[in-house]
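Incident review: delayed structure delivery

Summary: a single-chain prediction request sat in the queue longer than the usual turnaround. Root cause was a stuck worker, restarted by the on-call engineer. No data loss occurred. The affected request and its eventual output are reproduced below so the record is complete for anyone auditing the incident later.

Affected input:
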Amino acid sequence: YSLNKIVPIAQITSDPAIILVNPDAGVKTIQEFVKKASTSKDHFAIASSGTYGATHLPMAMLENATGIKLKHIPTSGGAPAITLAIGGHVNALASAPSVAFPQVQSSRLIPIAQTGSKRMAPFLETPTLKESNINVEYALWTSLFAPANMPPQIQQQITQAVRESVQDEQFKQAMVKSNSIQSYLDGEEFNTFWKA
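Output delivered after worker restart:
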């Protein structure tokens, strides 16, 4: 696809990535992670849902901002990536908050940083990368797009339906329960954001 073949309808969520480490990695903070990764003879290994995917990009941005080199193990999705981290086959990964939370709650993985502009619940004890003097900010946003040739009246009907859905109390509770930040944008506001 090329960008001129789609039109933005609405952004629904915008979440930070949570950087998680295996407890056996020997680090408990992002500073310790960067130090150990920069001095390790063997590169620290990270898993992702795929090269240049949503969970690889924040780790690549971390490498770029800090000068560290990580051994990237791309997988076929988020579940295999998190399985590698839990099993100790890799040291770390970035994950969506909804996926990270149960692993943190069960002490299988440790959160050491988040990539948003501010801390989000339930990770209020986990600093952002910027708070840790690492100039990286990254968000995983969930959005709805339509084919560019869709008639404008249908686009408007879909936008209105999505707008009403995100205002529904059950939807809002589901977002809170899944540890996702509702960040609704539509119309020109979303179009401007998307093109920025």
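Verification: The mean pLDDT is 94.
Action items: add queue-age alerting; document worker restart procedure.
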